[in-house]
């Protein structure tokens, strides 16, 4: 243990038995045996190669949103990515994975670029946003990515937008592994930045008015439910068709909400949870927000086990009510 600790100090600041509750937006999580903060991309690559060569278990932590850390100790290395170099070259934004998503959005607007205004209200880092194909207000990062530099299987690789295999809140990095190192966003020149700022402010005000404030949470717990046909994957098409039929069995297609879901090809998970009468449901110190059904909030001193129990209750109740299976968006480790 001492030998590993000494070696890790070559790559960044190291803490022993560091509570992950201090580093996640949920304010939940047991201690990490080693917690290493890395602020340079080249150093990060060297660290990942070392950990892989030693067979040391590790997880990557960005901004700590969309994440639920278990109550038990993590027997390995948590790598906190804090590389935050940001450059803008014409209409291309080049951001290290540790750049805060909000900061990237703000910088792009100051440079007179449009396309990433929606990012001003998204928590976490740009690397995490790419990994989970984050989105808000009808936009997602898939539309903006030109290419991604990543670490995978001991090598640094470049992936095009197509090679990232983006899906709804999904990407190749979720399915096949790899660590995002740097992101290249292709944006467009826009009208004066005052107009962009106004648009971004509207996004932010809407999010603040519809999402719970004043409580720790991870963001949305569940993915919205696919009912569209915008995929060539036969299995996904079959699931989407089934979900669409299940929705129509329980509600009328002249319902304004349902019309909107049919237009966008997704059912709001929060709406399903609300319709199942689950707002305000509580397990221990975790509660389904009264403001937004897809948010679980930490009322103070909540545990990961309480969150997981409430997640299972929600999935069961929604399935009982609609026959629809919710899928977690939050990453549990």
Q: Would you mind describing this structure in some detail?
A:
The protein is an alpha+beta fold. It has three domains: 2-81, Uridine Diphospho-n-acetylenolpyruvylglucosamine Reductase, domain 2; 86-207, Uridine Diphospho-n-acetylenolpyruvylglucosamine Reductase, domain 3 (2-Layer Sandwich); 212-332, Uridine Diphospho-n-acetylenolpyruvylglucosamine Reductase, domain 1. It is built from ten helices and 20 strands. It has helices at 2-8, 41-54, 101-110, 126-131, 172-176, 193-210, 234-250, 256-264, 269-275, 304-322; strands at 13-19, 31-38, 58-61, 67-68, 74-81, 86-89, 92-96, 113-114, 135-136, 139-140, 145-152, 155-160, 179-186, 188-189, 225-226, 266-267, 282-283, 286-288, 296-298, 331-332. The strands form seven sheets. Strands 6-7-13-11-12 form a five-stranded antiparallel sheet.
Helix content: 25-40%
> Overall pLDDT, averaged?
91
Globally, the shape reads globular
- Strand proportion, as a percent range, falls in 15-25%
Order of adjacent strands in the largest pleated sheet: 6-7-13-11-12
Total discrete domains: 3
Output the helix-strand order: HEEHEEEEEHEHEEEEHEEHEHHEHEEEHE
How many DSSP H or I helices?
A: 10
The total of beta strands comes to 20
* CA gyration radius, whole angstroms: 20 Å
Instruction: Report the end-to-end length measured between terminal Cα atoms.
Output: 22 Å
Structural class: alpha+beta
CATH fold category name of the largest domain: Uridine Diphospho-n-acetylenolpyruvylglucosamine Reductase, domain 3
The level 1 CATH classification of the largest domain is Alpha Beta
CATH architecture of the largest domain: 2-Layer Sandwich
Q: Uncertain spans, ≥5 residues at pLDDT below 50?
A: none
Instruction: Specify the biggest β-sheet.
Output: 5 strands, antiparallel
């Amino acid at each position: 243990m001492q030998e590993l600790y000494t070696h890790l100090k070559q790559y960044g600041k190291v803490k022993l038995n560091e509570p992950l509750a201090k580093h996640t937006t949920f304010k939940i999580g047991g201690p990490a045996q080693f917690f290493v903060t890395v602020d340079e991309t080249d150093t990060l690559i060297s660290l990942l190669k070392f950990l892989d060569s030693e067979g040391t278990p590790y997880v990557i932590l960005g901004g700590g949103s969309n994440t639920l850390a278990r109550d038990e100790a993590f027997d390995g290395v948590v790598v906190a990515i804090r590389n935050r170099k940001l450059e803008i070259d014409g209409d291309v934004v080049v951001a290290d994975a540790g750049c805060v998503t909000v900061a990237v959005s703000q910088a792009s607007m100051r440079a007179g670029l449009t396309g990433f205004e929606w990012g001003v209200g998204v928590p976490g880092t740009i690397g995490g946003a790419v990994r989970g194909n984050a989105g808000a207000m009808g936009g997602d990062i898939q539309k903006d990515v030109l290419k991604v530099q990543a670490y995978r299987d001991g090598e640094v690789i470049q992936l095009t937008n197509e090679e990232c295999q983006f899906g709804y809140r999904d990407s190749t990095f979720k399915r096949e592994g790899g660590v995002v190192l740097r992101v290249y966003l292709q944006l467009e020149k826009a009208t004066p930045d005052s107009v962009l700022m106004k648009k971004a402010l509207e996004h932010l005000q809407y999010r603040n008015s519809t999402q719970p404030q004043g409580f720790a949470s991870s963001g949305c717990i569940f993915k919205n439910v696919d009912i569209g046909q915008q995929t060539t994957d036969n299995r996904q098409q079959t699931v989407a068709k089934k979900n669409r039929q299940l929705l129509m069995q329980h509600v009328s297609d002249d319902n304004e909400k349902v019309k909107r879901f049919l237009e966008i090809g997704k059912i709001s998970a929060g709406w399903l949870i609300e319709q199942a009468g689950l707002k305000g449901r509580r397990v221990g110190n975790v509660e389904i927000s009264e403001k937004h059904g897809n948010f679980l909030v930490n009322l103070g001193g909540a545990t990961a086990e309480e969150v997981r129990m409430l997640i299972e209750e929600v999935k069961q109740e929604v399935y009982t009510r609609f026959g629809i299976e919710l899928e977690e968006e939050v990453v549990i480790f």
